[in-house]
Amino acid sequence: MIFIVKSATHHMQARDVIRETWGSIEFLRGTRFATLFLLGRTSTSEEQFLLNRENEMFGDLLQCDLLDEYKALPLKVLSSFRWLLEGHMTSSYYTVTDDDCVMNLMNINTFFHVERYDDVIYCGFIFDQDSKVNRQRKSKWYISKDVYSGLYYPTFCHGGMWSLQKPMMRDVYCMAEVTQRNEFYLEDVYITGILREKLGRRDSNILPATTNSGSKYLLMYYPWDETNRAYIKMTAKWRKLNRTLPWGINSSSGEPLVGSYKPQTLHTKQNVKLLLLQWSHLKDAETNRTK
């Protein structure tokens, strides 16, 4: 599984917390994990220098040629889809999350060994049905009638965590190429709701990832805190989850059940530059798309 972590250029502390917690586990009972931090363009050369140095150290930054701001999230996520679809890294599943979330790797490993439908988007966070469009102008999630005229959104996964396989990723990306986004900036609604529905995928193609008992947030943890205390909560939660991991040796193969694995394809500055050029072309063409 590849985790696509939506981050911001100045969120190095958040990225470090992930690298030191759940992002440090790169295989578990035969399942390999890799983490990409998704960024936009910096506003200063000094900040870009720091990102280049960070990427040289960790090789896990994926940067697209869009100013790093909240309203760029749909294009940021879609740019990562394009990069992955071109074969830079392959995986059975791709999971989109935020840099203030903790992945429950044990439950993720168990869940996706059972649930393996290639035409389904799985919601690891809030599964939202019949969500009313926010018309409050001062709200972070305000959407005007000019941008989206409907009263309700299609069923969608909130951005904390959602997972899909490559066939669905490819279809969503191709639909985005021929869809006029009209400045709609809620990437979770746009990708898992609007584009999915436009593809003809029904509500049966988007499902909550829960236990049989209906327990919420089986696969992830969100601290519900926008202060720096969120990082303390994330670390504390990971310590609890870490104790549930099978730290031992496979009796038949002699290999460790949990450990660190580095993918052969790191996300070097050369790959980052390639992404910048490719997505710039698509960004320029967006205004010519029609519904």
UniProtKB/TrEMBL annotation:
A Gene Ontology molecular function term of the record: glycosyltransferase activity
Keyword Glycosyltransferase in record: yes
Enzyme class (EC, first level): transferase
TM spans (from-to): none
Protein name: Hexosyltransferase
Organism annotation: Ciona intestinalis (Transparent sea squirt)
Subcellular location: Golgi apparatus membrane
InterPro entries assigned: Glyco_trans_31
